[in-house]
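Quick one, probably user error.
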């Protein structure tokens, strides 16, 4: 049986949102409750995340932005993205979970991992958080993978929203391929098929905009016809 890790920590529950905010800690509470009572749980390797270093974060984000996040405390990074007292700590462990997964894969301890983290990350750009996202966890992980010796990284983004932050991180980069399926047009407004990268990164961004309400058939075609 292939070794699959599940990476989680209760620190993610300390990232508190205003009442009725859709990016609620209860999402993770529900996932953990359901998963721990399922037949799948005994098959997983439970792992705790490490805390990402500032060097790890700086591989993607500007120092001034990191200082802003670190010092903000309570408040909004933008109209949607709220920070509570423990958000910065949770965000470091969210990015750290990806690093933990990559490090364990590299060492041969696991073959894959699911990182159940928050705050999320794929909308966060180098100098700003948005769309509930503080640090770009996957982008930070991609750079860490390269630090470990993986010359090329392929990022697959599966979400109703386009990951503008991840695309932004590697748009001019030919060492990271970014592939995304998402509803379009939709928040945040990026992700058209014409966005394919620029400079050395031309051709290393592949967006597949999907219409509202598409089903399994269209998604299957997108991944099996386009991704292969």
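Nope, works fine. Designed sequence:
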């Amino acid at each position: 049986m292939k070794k699959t890790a599940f990476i989680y920590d209760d620190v993610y529950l300390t990232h508190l949102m205003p009442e009725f905010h859709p990016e609620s800690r209860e999402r993770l509470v529900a996932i953990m409750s359901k998963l721990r009572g399922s037949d799948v749980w005994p098959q997983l390797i439970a792992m705790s995340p490490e805390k990402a270093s500032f060097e790890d974060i700086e591989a993607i984000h500007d120092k001034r932005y990191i200082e802003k996040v670190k010092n903000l405390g309570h408040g909004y990074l933008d109209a949607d993205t709220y920070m509570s007292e423990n958000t910065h700590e949770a965000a470091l462990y969210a990015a750290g979970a990806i690093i933990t997964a990559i490090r364990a894969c590299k060492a041969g301890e696991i073959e894959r991992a699911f990182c159940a983290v928050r705050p999320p990350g794929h909308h966060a750009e180098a100098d700003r958080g948005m769309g509930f996202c503080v640090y770009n966890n996957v982008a930070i992980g991609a750079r860490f993978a390269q630090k470990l010796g993986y010359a090329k990284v392929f990022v697959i983004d599966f979400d109703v929203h386009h990951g503008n932050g991840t695309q932004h991180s590697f748009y001019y980069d030919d060492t990271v391929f970014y592939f995304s399926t998402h509803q379009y047009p939709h928040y945040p407004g990026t992700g058209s098929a014409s966005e394919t990268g620029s400079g050395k990164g031309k051709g290393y961004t592949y967006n597949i905009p999907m219409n509202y309400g598409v089903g399994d058939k269209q998604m299957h075609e997108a991944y099996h016809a386009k991704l292969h």
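The chain has a mean pLDDT of 97.
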